[in-house]
Amino acid sequence: NAGVTQTPKFRVLKTGQSMTLLCAQDMNHEYMYWYRQDPGMGLRLIHYSVGEGTTAKGEVPDGYNVSRLKKQNFLLGLESAAPSQTSVYFCASRVGLAGEQRTQYFGPGTRLLVL
Amino acid sequence: AQKVTQAQTEISVVEKEDVTLDCVYETRDTTYYLFWYKQPPSGELVFLIRRNSFDEQNEISGRYSWNFQKSTSSFNFTITASQVVDSAVYFCALSDRNQGGKLIFGQGTELSVKP
Known about the structure:
The structure holds 2 protein chains of 2 kinds. By secondary structure, chain A is mainly beta. Chain A has no helices and 11 strands. In chain A, the strands form 2 sheets. In chain A, strands 2, 4, 5, 6, 9, 10 and 11 form a 7-stranded mixed β-sheet that branches. In chain A, strand 5 and strand 6 form a beta hairpin. The relative contact order of chain A is 0.33. The mean pLDDT of chain A is 93. Chains A and B meet through strand 4, strand 5, strand 9 and strand 10 of A and strand 5 and strand 6 of B.
């Protein structure tokens, strides 16, 4: 049981390049999230999914797209990277809405540097 | 508005000292969930505890304890007899009922435990 995994761990992009971050979970969780962490700002929600085939915008969605074609995978895409997207990206998942199901479990993070 | 405030940006203590990390939250919901996560220097986010709004019992887990007080909207975290391995950034978070139950994070408190 690997929990939540993220690929890649680290990436350097040039402005304007595109890339996809992959998040995978093996816990059969319904909900999945993408957050970004910037210095002194905690974590902010980019996009989320409440189930296979569904996605929705979070607090800071501009410049990102997501897809959830399979329940276990949640992809985050940057179509044209900008230096402002330099950040650490975390994926998280949780079972559902009730009680302990609300606990989100995080992946190890992806460090992205956009030059 | 939903908000989490961790007023202590950095705390430095000497090993074996007790230390309390403060967390104050704002929410209009009557039912809500609070969390603490630990982010060690390696960068991952580790879940520590979840508390729901209708359970004000304090909790103790080894050297860790949590004090939840609805009257003051606080959910403070105490480490007793701190150790160097406790050095990390600690985040308090509130589960929002909107946006898929996203977590609203405080800015984090960086704890440094010196030998």
